[in-house]
């Protein structure tokens, strides 16, 4: 029995019919060269033999003394979680994205472990797909990426590889004392050496500086300053998923031409795509849209610990020139990173929590529409750098499928894989009609920057 943390409980509390709180991932594979035509059916038969399910995939929700806890499901029905399916003819990417859109709209049964694994055949010429969805209370986006990556390998000849639900459990980094999650959270907040309390002077100073900057510059991307937008309406439970790959060398070419980062160019692409989409809907706000962007603050090659901050960045969607927009985004992000440069990890966490508190209150209650802190989430989750294989099949692409919420109808998440950048857009089908056109606008945005740079 393992109590849920307050954050994990929040994902359960937020969930409702129009707001499923699971994350997902779509992977595309090509058959091994020597594989028979029924390779996927044979693969499905092998996967069904992995009946020993390992944590966290063998855990279901239960309630003890009124509090949610994870307990082992002693009657787990693998057929419910592992599903072998086929796309309708003609089996194009369009049919695959429609399948994911529909599946990502469905709530999962809380009486069972909160995950599904879909093995999908009938896609194009000797290709198949895997779509995995897991409740956000069970894993976060980074953990999900690590689990999927652990399932893969860099050896095209390796076979009999277990699926994600049968992987050896990863060793826990923290000792679980089994105590109530509330008290563990209080202990973390206070810190063994008073680290959290020691952040108050710096956090207060930076928060005051942020507010003062906002007073001096009306366009400053700070708290309370995101414009009203169709992106921030109440949503339905129906989803539209759109995905596209872009060559990383193209994006790096633009980076080199303008002295920016990959993340800057990606944000500029998203900004231009949003501008085009909203203009065609006759719904582009006069003021620039604001994005909530997780950014890496790591200054070395270490892998331990969390060194990630969240910034609020203007997308400058009121600017006509794509190059000017890119450079202004670059300056905004650089200024935000410079703000964090002299702050400790604890100070960054607490500063972020305070600046995003108005957004959280509005998202949870809808009672403060004027406290529109940001309009859209643009998130970048690092993926494998080398070509990956699974049971001899080459992984051609991996696309994140995230969460849309009331007053946050669009989530733009991307991941890196080898020499590709994979975009996954998830949105409310009714609130944001024809969302798939955003893929064309993303391509147009990149071409505009390449053309301006003479590439």
Automatic annotation (TrEMBL):
Question: What InterPro entries does the record point to?
Answer: Acyl_transf_WS/DGAT, CAT-like_dom_sf, O-acyltransferase_WSD1-like, O-acyltransferase_WSD1_C, O-acyltransferase_WSD1_N
Task: Report residue spans for region: Disordered.
Answer: 159-181
Ranges for domain O-acyltransferase WSD1-like N-terminal come to 4-266
Give the family this protein belongs to, as stated in its UniProt record: Belongs to the long-chain O-acyltransferase family.
Q: What is this protein called?
A: diacylglycerol O-acyltransferase
Say which domain of life the source belongs to.
Bacteria
List UniProt keywords, sorted A-Z.
Acyltransferase, Glycerol metabolism, Lipid biosynthesis, Lipid metabolism, Transferase
Looking at the record, the residues that make up the O-acyltransferase WSD1 C-terminal domain are: 305-449
State which pathway it belongs to. Answer: Lipid metabolism; Glycerolipid metabolism; triacylglycerol biosynthesis
Q: Which reaction does it catalyse?
A: an acyl-CoA + a 1,2-diacyl-sn-glycerol = a triacyl-sn-glycerol + CoA
EC number(s) for this protein? 2.3.1.20
- Tell me one GO molecular function of this protein: diacylglycerol O-acyltransferase activity
Record's GO cellular component terms: plasma membrane
């Amino acid at each position: 029995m393992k109590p849920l943390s307050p954050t994990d409980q929040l994902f359960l509390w937020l969930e409702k019919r129009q707001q499923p709180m699971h994350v997902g991932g779509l992977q595309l594979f090509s058959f091994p060269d020597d594989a028979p035509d029924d390779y996927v059916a044979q693969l499905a038969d092998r996967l069904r033999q992995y009946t020993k399910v390992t944590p966290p995939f063998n855990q279901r929700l239960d309630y003890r003394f009124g509090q949610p806890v994870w307990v082992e499901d002693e009657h787990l029905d693998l057929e419910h979680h592992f599903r072998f399916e086929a796309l309708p003819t003609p089996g194009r990417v369009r049919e695959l994205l429609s399948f994911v859109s529909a599946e990502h709209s469905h709530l999962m049964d809380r009486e069972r472990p909160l995950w599904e694994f879909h093995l999908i055949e009938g896609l194009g010429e000797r290709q198949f797909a895997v779509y995995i969805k897991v409740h956000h209370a069970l894993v976060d986006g980074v953990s999900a990426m690590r689990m999927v990556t652990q399932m893969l390998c860099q050896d095209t000849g390796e076979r009999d590889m277990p699926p994600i639900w049968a992987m050896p459990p990863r060793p826990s980094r923290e000792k679980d004392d089994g105590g109530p999650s509330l008290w563990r959270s209080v202990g973390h907040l206070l810190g063994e050496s008073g680290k959290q309390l020691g952040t108050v002077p710096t956090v207060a100073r930076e928060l005051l500086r942020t507010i003062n900057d906002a007073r001096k510059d009306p366009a400053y991307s700070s708290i309370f300053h995101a414009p009203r937008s169709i992106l921030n309406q109440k949503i339905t439970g129906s989803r539209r998923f759109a995905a596209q790959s872009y060559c990383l060398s193209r994006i790096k070419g633009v980076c080199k031409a303008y002295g920016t980062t990959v993340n800057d160019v990606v944000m500029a692409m998203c900004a231009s795509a949003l501008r085009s989409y909203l203009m065609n809907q006759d719904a582009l706000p006069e003021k620039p849209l604001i994005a909530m962007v997780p950014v890496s603050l790591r200054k070395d090659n270490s892998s331990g610990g969390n060194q990630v901050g969240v910034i609020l960045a203007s997308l400058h969607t009121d600017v006509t020139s794509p190059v000017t927009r890119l450079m202004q985004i670059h300056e905004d992000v650089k200024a935000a990173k410079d703000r964090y440069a002299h702050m400790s990890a604890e100070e960054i966490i607490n500063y972020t929590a305070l600046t995003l508190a108005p957004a959280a209150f509005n998202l949870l209650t809808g009672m403060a529409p004027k406290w529109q802190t940001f309009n859209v989430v643009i998130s970048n989750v690092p993926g494998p750098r080398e070509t990956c294989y699974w049971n001899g099949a080459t992984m051609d692409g991996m696309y994140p499928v995230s969460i849309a919420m009331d007053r946050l109808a669009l989530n733009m998440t991307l991941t890196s894989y080898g020499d590709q950048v994979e975009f996954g857009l998830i949105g409310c089908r009714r609130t944001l009609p024809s969302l798939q056109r955003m893929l064309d606008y993303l391509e147009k945005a990149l071409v505009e920057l390449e053309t301006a740079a003479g590439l």
